[in-house]
Every structure is written in C-alpha cells, then in structure tokens.
Amino acid sequence: MDDTMAPVTRNQAPKISPFLEPGKTTKVGSLAILQLSRDNLQPVYLQAPSGKHDGYAEGAVVNTRYGSFPHSTMIGVPWGSQIRASKVDTGSRGRNNKRKRNKSDDDGKEGPAAIPEAKTEPESTPAEVIDDSSAATKKVVADVSGFIHILPPTPEVWTSSLPHRTQVVYTPDYSYVLHRIRARPGSVLIEAGAGSGSFTHASVRAVYNGYPTEAERKGKVYSFEFHEQRFHKMNKELKEHNLGGLVHLTHRDVYSGGFLIDGKSPEAEAIFLDLPAPWEALHHLSRRNPKNPGDKDWVSPLNPKRSAHICTFSPCIEQVTKTVSAMRRLGWVGIDMVEIVNRKYHTSRERVGLNLSMDRGVNNSARDVDEALARLTEIETRFREHAAKSKESDDEMDGDDDGGLIKMREKKELKGGKRRGGEKKVKVDHKPASPESFETPASGVPLWMEGRLITRGEPEIKTHTSYLVFATLPREWTDQDEAAAASRYPVVGEQKVIGVVDKAARKQERREQLQKATGNRKARRMERAAELAVTAEGTAPEVVP
Amino acid sequence: MHSLIRPNAWVGLKLPSGSTKVIQLVPDTTISLGKYGAFPANLVLGRPYHLTFEVLDKTPDESFSRLRVVPPSELHAEAIAEEDEAEGNAASATNGANQAVVTATEGEEFSLVDEKGNVVARSGREVIDDSAIQTLTQDEIEELKKEGNNAGKDVIAKLMLSHTALDQKTTFSLAKYKLLKTKKYIRRFQVVPIDVASFAQWQLEEKDASKIMDLRAEMFGLVGCWGNVHFGGEDSMMDDPHSRTDQGEETCVPVQPDELKGRWLVVDDTCGMLVAAMAERMGVLYPKEDDDEEPMVPEAKEEVKTAKPTQNSVAHENADVEMSDAVPETTVPERPKTTATNKKQKVRPKGSDFVVPLSQTNTLTVIHSTSQPNLSLLNYWNFDITAPNHPPHPLLNHLLNLTWLQLLKPELDTSYSTPPPTASAEELASWKPSRRGNFHRKRRRFARTRYIVDSTRAGNFSGLVSASSMDPISILKHTLPLLSGGAPVAIYSPSIEPLAALADCFSVPRRTAWTSGNVPETAGKSLEELERWEGNEQFPLNPTLLQGVSIQTSRARRWQVLPMRTHPLMTERGGADGYVFTAWRAKPAEGRVEARGKFKKIQPSSSRKAVRTEEDSTPAETPAATEEDDSATAAKRKRADTLPSLDTEGSSAPENVEAGDVASPTKKRKVDGEVEV
C-alpha cells in the first residue's frame, strides 16, 4: 500500500518542520519516534521502500526487542498508529554477509546504534550497492506478536530519545525555563551551549510564529555552540528537522566572541545560557559596553525596546554565586534562583490478602486484622484437632509438653510459609487463578480491578539537575526618554485614587457608587414612570431593593 | 509586547514587602500604595517595565510625590559591598579594605550610611555614635515618616542607629534586621507587566489560589509542553457564503476538515487561567503591539474611553484602550461589533450573516459545563467573552467555546438546533432597527454555533489540555475520539488521586484483558466503534486509546543567593502539589482478532509453562504486554518478588530476555518459536 504513497509524499516535501506541524500521517523522509515501551523511544527517519537494503529484502528495517519493523509498514499511516511487527529474515542475512558479521550483531542489539545506521547507510556504504540494486522490495508479512507505536516528533519525545552529546536539559527544566523567560511566539531567543539540542527544539516551538520572510521579523532562536563536532551534528539535525529557517546556529566561543551575528544585533529578549562559566559571557549581554558606557560602536545583542529575560543553567552552587554576582554588577534585577525537582509516579494495584491469586506482585499476607485472626483461628483449630488425634493414637506422650507443641506448630507454619503463606494448607476457598484465563476470579473482581490503587515514585529519581538563575534587564532609559514621557503624560490635577485608600475615601467612593447605581435606576424608573404617566418620582428612591 | 507601560494597562507593582499589587494604570489618577506612598499614574505611563521607582518626598510647591528611577547599582549596592568586603578580607585581611567599601557606597548606600556618610552598621566593627544608642518610640517613628524622609531611608538609618544592641548583633542577624526594616520603610516599587507568569504567581500567592486550582508556574510549563501547545499556523479564515437574509442554514459554509489545523481542546475550571496560558503559548493572548515609542494619539484615547463597554466583572474598567489603533492583524475586518465601538476604524464592506469570524487554525476550543464559560480572568488581558460588542482582540478569532451539551447532544441545544430566522430584504427594510439588529444577531449566532459544534465534532484536534474539577475519566471518554493520532494529552490536577484512577484505566492488565478479547461487549465492533467506546464498569475507557501514560509533578525550590549566606528558603507556599497526567493518543492496529486467535491457541499448551519457568515469564503474552508498562530496570526486576506492583505483572518474555541488553536476536527467535508451538 505504501509503494504508491511514497512518490506522492516525497514531492510534497514538508516545508514546515514535523516538530511544528507533523501532518496527519507519516511521510517518507520525515522524522518519526518509535515508542517501544513507555519510556523507550527511538527516533527514525522513514525511508521509502526501494529494493533491498542492508541485506533486508523488505527495505530499511528497524529491529527492536519487540520484533522487526520494515519502514514500509510505517509510512503513510496516521500518527499514533500501532504497528505490528513483521516477519523479517534476520538470520540468513547475517549468514550471507559473513564479512559483516559483527555489524549485523550490532543491529540485532537495537538501541540507539541502529538509528544513525538506518539513516546514513544509503549513501555511506558502497558495499551494499549490489544488494540494493537487486529485486524489488519483498512483500511484508505480519508477525504473530509484537508491536510498537509511531509518534510524531515533539520536543518532549525528542528529548527522551535524542542521541546524547552532552548533559541534556530535560522537560521539567526547560518547560519551566521557557515559561519564566517569556519565550513566546515572536520572541527572539539566544541559546548558548546548544549541547544535545533538547532545549533548542523546545525553544523553537515556543518562539515559532511562522517561518521568517525578508519582510517580517518572526520568532527565532540564535544558538551558539563551541564544540565543533557537536556544532556539525546539530547543524545536520536541524536541517533534517526542517528547522533551518528558525534556528541560526553559530560555531563560536561566546565568552570571547559575544552574541552578535555578522556584527549585527539579533535583538533578543530571552536568553538561556547553558555554559560552564556564564559570568564570562554576561558582559556581552548588556545595553552598553560595560567597560566603557560611552562606546558608540559597541552593539548590544539585546532588543533595545524590551526587557530582556535571562536564565542560566549551572549544576554547581559556586557557579551560581559567581553568576549572580556578575548579574548584580551588570544591572540585572529580579535575580531569582531556583532548582526544579521533578518526580514521576507509577500507579499500580497493591494486592494484599490471603485469598488472592498467586501471581507475582501479590502479597500473600493478611489483608487486615480480621483476615489474620481468621487464619490464626483456623490454624489453631486444626492444630488442636491434630493434637487431639495424636493424643488418641499416642497416649503415652500425655500431650502436656508445650515446648514440643510449639515446635510442631512452628514447623507447620514454616512449611506453610514456604508454600506462599500456607494458603494451600489453609484452604479458605482459594481458587488459584489460572494465569492464562482473564476470567474473573472467585472473588468476582477481575484481576485488573483487584486490590487498592496506589501511586509510587519511580525507582530512581533525579534529585538535582542544575540551578536555574533568572534575572531581568530593563531597557535603557535615558533622561531624554524620561523628558519625552513626562511631556506626553503631564501630571494634571489628579482626582481619582487607585489602590490603597484610607477609610474615609473608601466610604466616599462607595457612597458615590451607590448614588450612581440608584441614580441610574432612578432615571430608568422615571422613564418608565413617564411612559405610564404616573408621578412616582417621590417614592422611587425608597423602593431600592 | 510589554515594552512600555501603556495607559490603562494592567500592571503589577512589586512592593518592598514582597507583595504585588495588581492595578490598572488609568491616566490622570493617583496610585496609592498605602504606607509606601502615593504618586500620579502619569509618572509611570510611557516608561519601561521592570524599572524600580522610588517615591520621593513632596516638594513644598507640588501637591504630589515625584518618582525617581533607582539604578540597579543602588539596588544591589549592599550585596556588592559585602562581596567586595569578603573578597578583600580573604585577600588581605589587614589592609584597609573597609575603606574601599565605604567610598564605593558613599552617598548611595541607604541603610548603611547615616547623614554624615558614615557606615552605620556592618558586622559590628564600626563604632556607633554613643548618642545614637537610644530606642526610638513608635511616635517618634511616625513623626519621622511624616516629615519627608528621603523615601524612607532616613527612618531606616535612624532605626539602625537607635538600636541599642546593634553592635552585639552578628553579621547575619544584622543583615536580617536591616532587611526587615528596609522592607517596612523603603518607599520603592517595581512595575511588572501582567503576563501569565506574573499574574498567575500573584493569583496563587496573594489572591485566591483555589480560583486557579493551585496552578503553579511549573505546572503551566509542564502542561503546555506536554500538551505540545504552540503556534498552530497562519490564520485561515472561513469563506463568505454570501448568503442572503432569506436563505437559511443550507447556505452555511460546511466544515472543511482538511483546513482545520493546530487546534487544541481545553477544559478549564480555572476561570480562564489555563486558557490564558495556552493562548500565550499560541501567540493569541496579547494584541499585536508596535514597539514604537508611542502609538497613541491623545484624541483616540478620549474617544475610546467613552466607547468602552460596560463589563460586569472584576475588571469592569477594562477599557481596552491600548488596542484601539493597534488593530490586531488577526481580527476579521468585517466584524460588525468592532466598527460599532470604534469610530476610528474604517467602515469596511459588511459580510453576510453567515460569515463566521473564526480562524480555522491556531485555535483553542473550550468545552464548559455551564451555559457560559467562566473565563473571567481573561479580563486582565482585556478580553471579555460575554461582551457583545468587543473591541479587537486576537482571542476573538481564536477562542471557540461550546458546552458539553452542544458537543454531545447538539440536537438538544436550542441555539444549535433552532433554524435561523429568514426574511426577505423588503420585510427587513420595514422593520424597526432594533428588530433588524436582533434578526442579524440571531443569524450570526446560529452560524457561529453551527460552525463551532460541527468543527469540534469533526475531531482531529492537535492536543488536549485540562485543569478541571470534573472527573478526568469522564472528560477523556468524550474527548479521546476527537483527538488526532499521536496527539498529546496533558491533564492537570491539584491532587494525584483522580489522575491515578485515570492512569489505572490504562493499566497493563486492563489492556491485556481488552486486547485478548475477554470483554464480550467489544466483540464484533469495528475500531471506529471502539474509539467511541461508551465505557462500562470494568473498562471506563478503551484502554488502547492512550500510550505512554505517565504522572508527574514538579516543584521549584527557591534559594537565597547572598555572599556567604546562600541557602534554600526556609518556608515556601504549601498546599496542593499539583500533578500532570500525560499520554499520547494511539490508533490501535486493525486485525487484532487474528492475533488474539493465535494467542488463545497457545495459551493452554503445556509447552508454554516450560517457557515461562525457563525465562521467568508472566502470563500476559499478548501484544499489549510486549510493550511493557514502564522502564522495568534490572534493579526493579530483581525486587519484583518483594514489591507487590502490577507493573511487573505485564512484563513479557521478550522483555525479560533483553533485560540485560545483551541477548542476541537468535535467542529471541528461539523463545518466540517455543511460544508458538
């Protein structure tokens, strides 16, 4: 079905990034995120099925622990679709390509290693060309089990799946940062330390209000990366994601080089610094040359007409101290430092009870005191019966050796305990729920509704990511500006008071308000009264409800 | 936006006490800050935001206080001086580092310097004038405050001086004391714009947190990001059907599903706070403003003021003046309402009644449980959904609202199901203007309701965000079918319980049971029918419609950063933590029946048990199980026996095989093969 789809979609190469407008269905060449399990996401650039690829008769294939997924099964489907695994011959491919044995093993391992391979192979491996030119793509047969979901790329899924290059700024941090630095559609944002690109993608989405044209300034991200390799990878990534027009990536050391683009100001109003020493870059982000305020040639990278909001992202408190100190000296106000603690919760059903199934995850101990009591009573009764029996059969023991009895009881309980709480021993109408059947167990409650619903934190938590320092730099305000504003808004004889007023004034205001309200009502009433030709003017004010 | 303070803008005034005062800056009025003084509003109009002003003493020949812009160097003088001192001490403890500090702060430092320019107090080393060791009485302080006192600085200085035991205080307690007195007496304020971040913080911390369901800044970030709310594309307006007044509903423009893009569903019980936050992310909250110094002509100011609509809400003085001539590009020109209120606007050719002035892209659709949505907080952004003749505002074309009744049973809704009135041109001409107006209004309302309901029911929304006191399960039951594939869902709740119950609807055992065909009601139903699954007791929602279900919370911990005194704040606001439920809309695969048959076949086989014991598998060997509910780490796996968690329940054989991340595909094949036997 996808063969016909491919050429059509390729002609309409998505101009808008799939991050911003993914469209309704998956397309050839587009980035898609495969969701293997909840937190296991894998990015894939979908390739058109074109003959054999990398030894696979089906074209490009993604191998996961949940089966093999030829790209052809994932193209032209609605986003969010569940994709069944296909029967893909992985074995013979390995045998045929003995010289590449090691490589195919890597493939089998799946994980991030498969991604770059999937997208770079076509142009980078000449060894494959002979294979590729052979017969048409094999028809795909669905496998009996295994599936994945295919998700449209968003900064969130990209952040959880992206190839790590540096420490990643995760969603809890960047969502808060973007909110605080007022990154909105139309904003111009400076980001220094592009790193792995998670913040870049999130900030593009935040400032995006259309692709910029010659005539109109639109929201844009100016990103700076010092590390050359990361810069090139990032550049490639941005192109692949169609974000080229929205992100201007520069390879530069901003400590010495500053933030100007070809000597011109990007006119930014939001700044995010993920640098080891933000204080060394801060002096570039001033309104005037901090060393020489009279310097006319100095160009500020900030928007001269708006307040600038900054956030720096530093893991150590010493960095924060230095950053804050530099900010204070450079005139930033509203300095605020926070750290974000994010926690994820898993929900599950806590199943405790003696009569529950023996599934894993079930705590086969007493659910409450009553259940414990019932069980103890039963054990006691049985034991007494047993003791009575043995007494009958074994009279010479006299049955008064308490120590012996206790030992026997303990032994029995121990035995029972070994067999999962001894529920086999104590047959309290327990029916071992057969794992295969999903029919409701004896209790009448289906498995998935049994027990108490609980939430529990994830097993491992990030207790510290980084400290976030926020600050604001107001726009410059000169005496001339002040004089102009003063002449535009001259102080006249102000009458009305807004805000905190003393009691007398408040009372007076209230009185006036009431007067106004009754006045209106009075006027309306009078109108009506006039219509009805009734002279009710004298009584009107008293009828106020 | 927010470059200069515009007349009639809502602003926040941050006071030294840490509190914020939200007021509307009406020109030619006096703003009173209580004990911090009063000043004419005109003295801050036209000035930039985020500046700190100081209320000066009245001069003898003026009846009002003038303002002074406090330079940042002065705001931070104390901290900088301390830093310098600390550095100086560290470098050379003996030399005159203190001298430098004094000169650096001379004349500027307010609380440290008395009239003679001496440092009053720093760590108790300085000698305090003997005559100053006396306690001021309350009356004396009042007296001081009255007799013009250099914006409160004199009071503070005198208080510091008069503290008898000042020299016995440590640096820390001294700083604290100073700060306390400064907060109380310094007459300063900072003007901040009312945007979502600052307004929500004020509403949360100082006004009424319950009104916005305790939504904290962290939550706005999470909900917005996980809901993937962003600018949804350039406006695309509906065509004018050019329907004549004697034509009925047949001439309404039908919904074009392909044109609908970038639309988000919102369920909002936060009086519009969530809508405002999402609108801000989509770029439709603030009117487009020129950054030019002054767009306003004084005449226009007057004109609009007289034309301002009366609003019955908190912000009844919300005069929308600042937008009068900066007409947002997004506003439909033929909107009759705006021409009625704003004479300045050019009279443009009127469209027919059935023109719906709504964009098909970049919209928010609010579903509300009362007949009118409660979006009262939007008044602070000069938008009033109840105003009949609204001045231009971007939200007008991008905010759609409908009731749950209109969404679910439109035929019962009067405004949707009553056909529009028709009349010939001659009839119309014979009517009184008021009747004619009513006629047009009814027709317009009909077209609008029709369009909103039909387009919403057409579905294909880009996402759902919700902060509602209603049960999220019931919300999702009716909104899940409206979401396009892969669309994110982000639901905020102040407490975790409703979200946990919701997440439980998508638990692995439930999904497994569903997909393995143990729900008799689902038999024979198509995928489309199952998407609109009405729910039963055991399966309130179709558990296959969401993927990646997760619940999280975030909390910002605030720190004080001062030289040698950096630590987290001792107390912060408590109350609701706030949780966010996130997931993506999934499109279950077709042909599930086939898979189920195969799995049923293998289930009773004895070989299965062997596999299980060998690979430590669990019963749920179905497609649903293979996706494994969470990142079952090896560590968790080990503890699975002790932790009674259902998460482990769903883990499948392949998952286990790969747990160590080293298993080869051949091994996996083997396992699969055995399963199939």
Automatic annotation (TrEMBL), chain A:
GO molecular function per UniProt: tRNA (adenine(58)-N1)-methyltransferase activity
Keywords recorded for this protein, A-Z: Methyltransferase, Nucleus, S-adenosyl-L-methionine, Transferase, tRNA processing
Membrane-spanning parts: none
UniProt function note: Catalytic subunit of tRNA (adenine-N(1)-)-methyltransferase, which catalyzes the formation of N(1)-methyladenine at position 58 (m1A58) in initiator methionyl-tRNA.
Basic and acidic residues compositional bias, start-end: 407-416, 423-433
One GO term of the biological process aspect: tRNA methylation
Renumbered residue ranges of the record's region Disordered: 1-21, 85-132, 384-443, 506-545
Pfam families in the cross-refs: GCD14 (PF08704)
Bias kind Acidic residues: ranges: 393-403
Known EC number: 2.1.1.220
Location(s), subcellular: Nucleus
A GO cellular component entry from the record: nucleus
Subunit text: Heterotetramer; composed of two copies of TRM6 and two copies of TRM61.
Listed name of the protein: tRNA (adenine(58)-N(1))-methyltransferase catalytic subunit TRM61
Domain tRNA (adenine(58)-N(1))-methyltransferase catalytic subunit TRM61 C-terminal: 146-472
Top-tier EC class: transferase
From TrEMBL, chain B:
GO cellular component: nucleus; tRNA (m1A) methyltransferase complex
Keywords from the named record: Nucleus, tRNA processing
Protein name per UniProt: tRNA (adenine(58)-N(1))-methyltransferase non-catalytic subunit TRM6
Protein family membership: Belongs to the TRM6/GCD10 family.
GO BP annotation list: tRNA methylation
Signal peptide (residue range): none
Organism: Triangularia verruculosa
Chief location bin: nucleus
UniProt-annotated location(s): Nucleus
UniProt region (Disordered), positions on chain: 289-348, 597-677
Organism superkingdom: Eukaryota
Pfam families: Gcd10p
